[in-house]
Amino acid sequence: MRVAFVLPETTRHRDRPGAARLERVAGLLADRGHDVTVFCAQWWNDYSAERVVDGVRYRGLTVGAATASFASRLPVALARVRPDVVHARLLPARVTLAAAAGSTLVRAPLVAEQFGTDLIEGRLGRAAVRAADRIVVPSELVRTAVREHGASETDTTVIPESIAYPEIEATDPEPEIDVAYAHRLDETANLESLLLALAELRTLGWTATIVGDGPQRAAYERQAEKLRIDDRVRFVGAPDRRRRLAVYRSAHAFVQTATRSVFPTELLWALAAGCVGIVEYHAESSAHELIESYDRSFRVTDTAAMAAAIESAGELERRTVDDRWRAFGHERVIEQYTDLYEALTGGERSREPIAVGDG
Fold this sequence. Notes:
Elements: E1 2-6, H1 17-31, E2 35-41, E3 50-53, E4 56-62, H2 67-81, E5 85-89, H3 93-106, E6 110-113, H4 122-131, E7 134-137, H5 140-147, E8 156-158, H6 165-169, E9 177-182, H7 191-200, E10 208-211, H8 217-226, E11 233-235, H9 241-250, E12 251-256, E13 260-261, H10 265-272, E14 276-280, E15 284-285, H11 287-290, E16 297-300, H12 303-313, H13 330-345
Parallel strand pairs: 1-2, 1-5, 2-4, 5-6, 6-7, 7-8, 9-10, 9-12, 10-11, 12-14, 13-15, 14-16
Antiparallel strand pairs: 3-4
Helix pairs in contact: 2-3, 3-4, 7-12
């Protein structure tokens, strides 16, 4: 299948979760033998029009991230490639509408990806929602946000984030700990909920590791000291994936307290690495969706309930991997994308790219 991704700013321009998700999907499709082109602003430092990285062809339409110029060139560029599917981010809306024009030109469906809830104001935003043949979101939380801006339930499909099981199984656990936490330590981290719960359990012999860095780290370290639990709470900063997995495989429970999360990716990694899941409910977080039907989990709404859940988690067996989460492995999740493409195209394939002039 020939798939064209529209991504003006890649992770080589800015590290953004929505861009990282689309690039991962593009790479997984290329690994499975699909013909994948990403239309983007040029990020390489020469005069060539494209670069191929790990089987993915990146075609530069502009040198900088100039939305108007990028959008004006996109329909013709898509027509030259003649994809079976056009896959774009829902925002910026002007680029999505240009992608819709290009998809109409080549008679290919437009899949629009929306990763966050920070959308879609004004006439152009609503037009972009209507222009997509299907909008893919990572959670019901984001689906609700998209529907509030004009999409219907049948216009939207939930496809979760994915993880690499081989990385989990290849990582040795650190020495055993009781509780792990991971999130950027910013205004949404809400780590104080966990620290207060741990303080209520100070008479028990627990240990905890905090993964994450950010502007609130020093304040949280001071709070742990004031609560007289700093000798058992270890702050390890923001390590790479392998170190995170070593922490998760060593932990008995993972506690999710963040007030905002469009998809709880670190919670998913931790559950797959065997942790019991403890999730504090927040209206702007989708974390509770992930554990709704999982028996090794607890949903809580206050500090006392969190403390009780941490204590109860200690009664469950320790694990270092949990096969229940293999449904979220890269190979299984990318099949959801290819199934969606097949449904939208009816299984048809394009012929060779057509020649289109610049005029």
